Amino acid sequence: MDAPYNRNGGLTLVPMPGFETLAALVKQQVEQRRDQPTPVDIVHPVFDLRVNGEPFLQLGKEHVGGHDCVVLTSGPGTYEMAGQLFLLLRYLAGRRAARIAVVTGYFPWSRSDKDEGHLEFALPPLAVDLMVAASRGKLDRVIAVDLHAPQVVMSGGTGLITEVSLIRRVISCAIKAACVKADAASVVVCFPDDMAAKRAEEAVERAWQDVVGMGAPYTVHGAKRRKDSKESRLKLLYGDVDEVRDSIVLSFDDEIATGGTNINAGSVLKETHGAREVWAVVTHGVLCGSAAERFADPACAIDRLFITDTIPVENRPALQPLIASGRLTVVPWGEDLGKIIFFHHWDMSVREMR
To answer: Which of 139, 114, 326, 334 lies closest to 229, judged by CA?
Structure first.
């Protein structure tokens, strides 16, 4: 760290389509650091289709050959997104990148993180296998945010996948907003299931101490029963249940897809336990299907929704009215991403960064 030389080569960001703005922000974040001069290049791959429908990619060797190349992407992982990622990784390997990393805010195919009966396999390990194969084994690391299934970390072998967390950042934003609207004693934290509690309990306590300056808040835990990857319902609530009445409830989870599970939980908290408002606080705003329309409905049981932009929102027109109305708050992760990539490039521990 005392010398400007980096054994991994120069740092090059390679944004997938839709991630160009994020790449520019990360470049600014990294180059502004004073602890180690780190110039950043950005290479823009050009994807297109031939007349017969076959995909192709244009990507030269400039700023790729001999460089530490970091691909910026995210899930959910449509056929197009996945195909472009695998094609790009093969090109980076073929153009002799010194090292290749993939930073994916939302891990592709996360909703298929476990076998669904006798008809469906868990797919995240396949995503990793395909990334490794496409890169000819030159894929050094996959960095992902708040994995839907922690066991994904072991896909592809020890040390390949690094999980980082934005839970504390989005939680802090929600706590600050709640304390502006109500006294801290009128705010209750809800974990809809044991997995959500394991992910976020410590982060909530630390964020609460940072923002409020006192001990842990009133907390309730739910017993959520999932029928399959598409449907689950809040069946039972225990903990400081009496405190829910007339309170603002902050309900935490790692992601929100169609919104059905969250809206169901909000209805239970209001109709059964008398919550004044219910705010959903999640890392990944997948918000697919009719989610935007559901949350825009004045009768929706979720009064506010807090997400990060691990899945970009600027190119999703359906979400803009929710943002403009104040019903949807997007917590940017560009600053965090700049730190992550800087620490990765200089071979420092991403997990221990501050």
So the answer is: 114
Quick check: helix, strand or coil at residue 125?
helix
- 32/150 same-domain check: yes
**Inside any domain, residue 353:** no
Task: Report which residue type is found at 209.
Answer: Q
Decide the pairing of beta strands 187-191 and 248-256: parallel
Residue 189, strand partner residues: 219, 250
For residue 230, the model assigns a pLDDT of: 55
Whether residue 95 is found in the same domain as residue 116: yes
- H or E element that contains 237: strand 231-239
Mean pLDDT split into 10-residue runs, the chain, 354 residues: 72 96 96 93 98 96 97 94 97 97 94 77 90 95 90 81 93 94 91 86 91 87 66 78 95 91 92 96 94 95 97 94 96 95 93 66
Q: What are phi and psi of 5, to 5 degrees?
A: -70, 135
Measured over the CA atoms of residue 178, residue 180, residue 181 and residue 185, the dihedral's sign is positive
1 in a structural domain: no
Host domain of residue 269: 167-331
Query: Residue 227 has what pLDDT?
Result: 55
Question: Domain with 319 in it: what CATH number?
Answer: 3.40.50.2020
User: How many domains would you assign to the chain?
Assistant: 2
Co-location of 254 and 286 in the same domain: yes
What secondary structure letter does DSSP report for 97?
B
pLDDT at 225: 62
Contact at 8 Å (CB) between 155 and 134?
A: no
Shared domain for 201 and 339, answered yes or no, is no
State whether the Cα torsion 187-307-320-25 is positive or negative: positive
Q: Does 72 reside within a domain?
A: yes
CA 283 to chain centre: 5
